[in-house]
Each structure stands twice: as structure tokens, then as C-alpha cells.
């Protein structure tokens, strides 16, 4: 679905996670609610989880890790909230600069990347599955190590069971229809 890339600003160290999580932006949450009419408390929770995700992505960059975090389908709700945040470009850039000293780019999967992935899958389905499993094992361990197992469960079990991609698409379509008629 997407991965995080960074562009450096001047900050040399990552802000503490609790400071990042204390950041509020009602406009971002409301934009999400306009597109996905869910319980406002759930939208606030998803925004908190996006801030965790961005903190971890920045952490990986500061460690100069070659491995990148990837947003996978179970994380659709987080990805959609991230999209809403990115739309508020000035707020998002200021958030990244203030807390991370670098801009966290939302890098969606390109058509060329999709084609390469499809070819790799067709050429060696078992090898592709093993490589994906290794990536996810690494990512799960990283999340659990830095954010805790509760966050791992929230991102890959709780939020996906409450807001799978199909539900988000349905809510978005309903919202669009209501917006035209309301």
C-alpha cells in the first residue's frame, strides 16, 4: 500500500513518543470523519496510531536502517488517516519538522513497483511468500520492541477487524452520496 520515506530538516534527534502523541489536529480528524463517518472517538484513536507509525518510521530513518516499514492492507484505517493528515500540507510539514526533524513522505506503491512485484510473485511464488514473511516478521518485532505488543495487536488485529478496507470503502461511498444529497 505505502511506505515511509524521509527528507531531512535540522532536528538531530527524535522527539519523545509522548510529545508526538500529545499533538492534536482537529481538522485532520474531522476530514477523516467527513470521509469515513465512524465514532469520533475511534477517529481520534486512529490519529493517535498514525502518530505512532510516523514516530517509528522516523526512528528507523534516524537509525539509518536500510529496511523500511511498509503499510499493509490490515493497516488501511491508519493509511487513510495518514492521507487525511498529508492533505493538510503545512500542518503535516510542521509536525514532521517539529517532532522528527525530517519530512516523512507518504510513498504509495507505483505502477512499476506493482508490476515488479507481480513478476516476482509469478516467477517464484514460494520465494516471494518467504521474503514477505521475513519483512513482516521484522516489522512485527520492531513494532513490538518500540511500541509494545498492544500497538501491534491494535494495528494488525483490532483496527482491521473493526475497519477492514471493505468497510472503509463502503463508508466513504455512503459519505460521498450523503454529501451530494445533504
Shape: globular
- Main sheet properties: 3 strands, antiparallel
The overall average pLDDT, rounded, is 91
Instruction: Report strand %.
Output: 5-15%
Q: What is the rounded distance between the termini?
A: 32 Å
Helix content percent band: over 70%
User: How many discrete domains?
Assistant: 1
Sheet/helix structural class: mainly alpha
Q: Any low-confidence stretches, pLDDT <50, length ≥5?
A: 6-10
How are the strands ordered across the major sheet?
Answer: 2-1-3
Run of helices and strands? EHHHEHHEHHHH
Entry summary:
The chain is mainly α and 182 residues long. It has helices at residues 17-22, 26-35, 40-62, 76-87, 89-100, 111-123, 125-147, 149-162, 165-181; strands at 2-8, 70-71, 102-108. It has one domain.
Overall description:
This protein has 182 residues and is mostly helical. It has one domain. Helices cover 71% and strands 9% of the residues. Strands 2-1-3 form a three-stranded antiparallel β-sheet. α6 packs across α7. It starts with a strand and ends with a helix. 24% of the residues are buried. About 3% of the residues have low confidence.
Question: What attributes characterize this protein structure?
Answer:
182 residues; three-stranded antiparallel sheet; 71% helix
Layout of SSEs?
Layout (H helix, E strand, L loop, with lengths): L1 E7 L8 H6 L3 H10 L4 H23 L7 E2 L4 H12 L1 H12 L1 E7 L2 H13 L1 H23 L1 H14 L2 H17 L1
Antiparallel strand pairs: 1-2, 1-3
Helix pairs in contact: 2-3, 2-4, 3-4, 6-7, 7-8
Amino acid at each position: 500500500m505505502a511506505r515511509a520515506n524521509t527528507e531531512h530538516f535540522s532536528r538531530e534527534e527524535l522527539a519523545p513518543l509522548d510529545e508526538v502523541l500529545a499533538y492534536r489536529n482537529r481538522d485532520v480528524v474531522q476530514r477523516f470523519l467527513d470521509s469515513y463517518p465512524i465514532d469520533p472517538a475511534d477517529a481520534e484513536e486512529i490519529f493517535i496510531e498514525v502518530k505512532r507509525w510516523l514516530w517509528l518510521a522516523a526512528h528507523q530513518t534516524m537509525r539509518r536502517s536500510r529496511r523500511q516499514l511498509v503499510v499493509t492492507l490490515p493497516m488501511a484505517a491508519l493509511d487513510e488517516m495518514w492521507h487525511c493528515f498529508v492533505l493538510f500540507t503545512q500542518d503535516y510539514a510542521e509536525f514532521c519538522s517539529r517532532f522528527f526533524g525530517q519530512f516523512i513522505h507518504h510513498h504509495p506503491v507505483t505502477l512499476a513497483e506493482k508490476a515488479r512485484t507481480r513478476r516476482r510473485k509469478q516467477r517464484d511464488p514460494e520465494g516471494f511468500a518467504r521474503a514477505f514473511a521475513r519483512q513482516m516478521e521484522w516489522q512485527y518485532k520492531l513494532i513490538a520492541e518500540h511500541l509494545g505488543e498492544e500497538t501491534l495487536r491494535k494495528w494488525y488485529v483490532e483496527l482491521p477487524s473493526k475497519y477492514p478496507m471493505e468497510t472503509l470503502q463502503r463508508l466513504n461511498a455512503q459519505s460521498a452520496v450523503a454529501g451530494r444529497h445533504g
